[in-house]
From TrEMBL:
SUPFAM superfamilies, A to Z: NAD(P)-binding Rossmann-fold domains
Family to which this protein belongs: Belongs to the NAD(P)-dependent epimerase/dehydratase family. dTDP-glucose dehydratase subfamily.
CDD domains: dTDP_GD_SDR_e
Pfam family, one: GDP_Man_Dehyd
This protein's encoding gene: rfbB
Organism: Novosphingobium organovorum
Cofactor(s) of this protein: NAD(+)
Enzyme Commission code(s) on record: 4.2.1.46
Name of the protein: dTDP-glucose 4,6-dehydratase
Enzyme class, first EC level, given as a word: lyase
InterPro entries tied to this protein: dTDP_Gluc_deHydtase, NAD(P)-bd_dom, NAD(P)-bd_dom_sf, Sc_DH/Rdtase_CS
Length: 356
């Protein structure tokens, strides 16, 4: 039995991981440490009676140390991060604080508990990072591998690159058992509606514009969040100390293709279920119109990376990881979740104006 801290476990990917781990390892103890900022939501953990939520800041090293001592923590799965690129452009300070200083705080607490005062019990610090640390690819460039040089282009990706380097340094300098995973673009349940897929899905349901940056041909590799959780599980169980693994979805798609998939799926859902027109009367699909009439092209984002792509060969060969879903299947599941969970996302939209 393992005792885990999951940082950011009330956020999008973290909460999905907590639900996933509670199913595959039901006897493990999970403590979620989350500051419950705008993207953290305690209701993301509803139904998990055995999971303890501690509302606190990963920058509070003393708090982390107390949790580790009180619960005999042997595993940290570190999701907590500021992650929205647009927000990093207008307010980079929070990204440096959370992503760099916060990660260093966790590493210090882990080193103290497991190495300086440790009993020799096996431990693991798993750091969840992003493919954005590698920069941008041209159309014919090979996909990112674990040996691709870092070239971050936004304050967000630069702060994540800094945290990656700290994790690496704590392994090579102090011998801390660390593993880092760099993932591609996630989507799925509980995703805060500022990111592309939930934003465009909910805008299509409410008849709001679908704002497309530039020419819409920026390419991303799309990864369903449960496949990401499976990849993290593989890293925790079979990853080699000090190693990095790229976790991808194998679905490299231009934004326009993703948006067309969203529009078509929404239209088909309304055609199949007439009650949706009553629930979402402002949707074009409620009036028999195409959702893609909402598409609007807007000025491109500053420093917008053109293409990301993940080569997950190492994870496949060393960990046995392969994604289980293609994008149509994964998005169909995601749309069904959002249609069924208006009680989850509607309060978020009522509390804040969501901008892209």
């Amino acid at each position: 039995m393992a005792n885990l801290i999951v940082t950011g476990g009330a956020g999008f990917i973290g909460a999905n991981f907590v639900h996933y781990w509670s199913k595959v390892s039901p006897h493990d103890k999970i403590v979620v440490l989350d500051l419950l900022t705008y993207a953290g939501n305690r209701h993301n953990l509803d139904g998990l009676e055995d999971v303890e939520l501690v509302v606190g800041d990963i920058c509070d090293t003393d708090l982390v140390s107390r949790i580790m001592a009180d619960h005999a923590i042997d595993t940290i799965v570190h999701f907590a991060a500021e992650s929205h690129v647009d927000r990093s452009i207008t307010g980079p300070d929070a990204f440096v604080t959370t992503n760099v200083i916060g990660t260093h705080s966790l590493l210090k607490a882990a080193k103290k508990a497991w190495l300086d005062e440790g009993t020799g019990r096996p431990h693991r610090f798993h750091h969840v990072s992003t493919d954005e640390v590698y920069g941008s690819l041209e159309a014919d460039d090979p996909a990112f591998s674990e040996t691709t040089p870092y070239a971050p282009n936004s304050p967000y990706s630069a702060s994540k690159a800094g945290s990656d380097h700290l994790v690496r340094a704590y392994h090579h300098t102090y011998g801390l058992d660390t593993v880092t995973s760099n993932c591609s673009n996630n989507y799925g349940p509980f995703q805060f509606p500022e990111k592309l897929i939930p934003l465009f899905t909910l805008n299509a349901l409410s008849g709001k514009p679908l704002p497309i940056y530039g020419d819409g041909m920026n390419v991303r590799d799309w990864l369903h969040v449960e496949d990401h959780c499976r990849g993290i599980e593989a890293c925790l169980r079979r990853g080699k100390p000090g190693e990095t693994y790229n976790i991808g979805g194998g679905q490299e798609l231009p934004n326009l293709t993703v948006i067309e998939e969203i529009c078509t799926a929404v239209d088909n859902a309304f055609a199949a279920d007439p009650s949706l027109a009553q629930r979402f009367p402002d949707a074009p699909a409620a009036r028999g119109l195409a959702s893609n009439t909402l598409k609007t092209f807007v000025t491109d984002r500053k420093g917008h990376d053109r293409r990301y792509a993940i080569d997950e060969t190492k994870a496949r060969e060393e960990l046995g990881y392969t994604p289980a879903r293609d994008f149509p299947q994964g998005f169909a599941e995601t749309l069904a979740w959002f249609l069924a969970r208006e009680d989850w996302w509607k309060p978020l939209l009522e509390r804040a104006a969501i901008t892209r």
